[in-house]
Amino acid sequence: MAMPIDATQTPAWAKLAKLRDELRVDFRTWFETDPERAERHSYQAGELFVDLSKSYITDEIKEALLELARDVQLSERRDAMFAGEKINVTEGRSVLHTALRQPEGNSVYVDGADVVPGVHEVLARIFDFADRVRSGQWRGITGKPITTIVNIGIGGSDLGPVMAYEALKPYVQDGLECRFISNIDPTDLGEKLRGVDPETVLFIVASKTFTTLETLTNARQARAWLLEELQAAGIDAEGAVAKHFVAVSTNLEKVAEFGIDPLNAFGFWDWVGGRYSVDSAVGTSLAIAIGPQGFADFLGGFNTMDEHFKNAVDEENVPLLMGLLNIFYCNFMGAATHAVLPYAQYLHRFPAYLQQLTMESNGKRVRWDGSDVTTTTGEVFWGEPGTNGQHAFYQLIHQGTQLIPADFIAFSNPIYALKDGEFDQHELFLGNFFGQTKALAFGKTEEEVRAEGTREEIVSARVFPGNKPTTSIMAPALTPAVLGQLIALYEHITFVQGIVWGIDSFDQWGVELGKQMANQLTAAVAGDEAEIAKQDPSTRALINFYRDTRF
Ligand code: F6P
């Protein structure tokens, strides 16, 4: 891997700093004096219509950002990723989630071997399995078909599947339901198994490494629960694990050790990062729920965005432009956070999904050669669906002192076409999306507030400064293909930012220390006095509080 180029030392960086100093954002004037602004700064990527005109983009800033991309050799790094080069340097791995959505017949090489045939081999097994579960051919120990799929996984082995399942609910086969257990908090398992019928449940234990404490603990609990429940109902549980447990992992040896037949395991590869894995076997629960065709469409959507990212000219390359704009907000305008606001209830887990994708990827303090980063990295991503967010935190976006760029996402066609009197409810909903982005951009001046007859003492409190940047993303409908496009869009935005910062966006060493400490603390929490005595005073006090107050 080539040495990272220090973006802050490039001529483009200096240009951007100058443009930032001269920047006087004034959306009212910008739109009045430039009637083409909306059209010039709107783009199409697959089925996504992306309007950047209410962002801080200007022709000069766009040009300087694209120059920055060239200065840091972004297209070379992108091509290296797609070609299977080991750009995850700290783990010595290729980064090939894009290979998971390559059509059959294409080739991508890792260490001289084409990985695409293997991808389709596993997909074919998953699809066959999904068909058997969906048709009722795959049966539980007492011969009943499966009705409930419980995915046990955490991080990338949970967030992608649960987000996509929730997003694609209208595509889920009637009579099938998925549940997701992730937290080691016993409450999660306890609550999610309430009402589950042991005769018709299928557990999918999803773990890339098959060593994750949360997942293995929950999987053991689920296995014990299954056997106990069956026995309590007077059913011979012999052989039940084979009928009610399958696994998804890169570590098939560990799967076998756990007691799941490798024939009932779906593999993937170390070149798929956990947070990039919903399109691998990790998506098996989704493939069962929405069916092979739906899942193939989902993968097709990812591929559409991959092709766009690879082939669209820089000036119209949406992930490139959005990633670079994030750099501008983060490194030049001091934005520390970025809101993602889906106007689609089905996308209610999308911000949570994006948090792992973006923050586990780009929350780094050293570059891929081990040297310190030279500028701020990794903004905080957060969000909630609109309109709920409007009644909670939008106040701060509109009138607070921090700059919070926000992505608004919506779809033209709702699943529920409801009328409220003469009004179409989806149109009321979209009116909120359009109204919010308008209010954020154009605000309300003192004069306008006064003209409404507002008492002078509260005029300033009722002023909306406006000039808050937003990106609007729309698509005709939230289909599996569109969801794939949306996810891949954010994957590539994350990639772009990581390259500018010179970091390895594909490792996650920052999660290790806490895991290690949790393991080391087990004995102390369980009351081992010698272990308790070894702790720092704060930790000791917390453990003692726990031990003194538990019932
Ligand atoms: O602890 C972080 C992490 O390694 C994530 O990167 C990953 O998605 C998650 O844990 C789960 O890991 P696994 O799929 O190996 O159980």
From TrEMBL:
It catalyses: alpha-D-glucose 6-phosphate = beta-D-fructose 6-phosphate. One of its GO terms (biological process) is glycolytic process. It is found in: Cytoplasm. Gene3D superfamilies: 1.10.1390.10, Glucose-6-phosphate isomerase like protein, domain 1. The active site is at 360 (proton donor), 391, 515. Keywords: Cytoplasm, Gluconeogenesis, Glycolysis, Isomerase. It comes from the Bacteria. It is an enzyme of class 5 (isomerase). PANTHER family: GLUCOSE-6-PHOSPHATE ISOMERASE. Catalyzes the reversible isomerization of glucose-6-phosphate to fructose-6-phosphate. This is Glucose-6-phosphate isomerase. The gene is pgi.
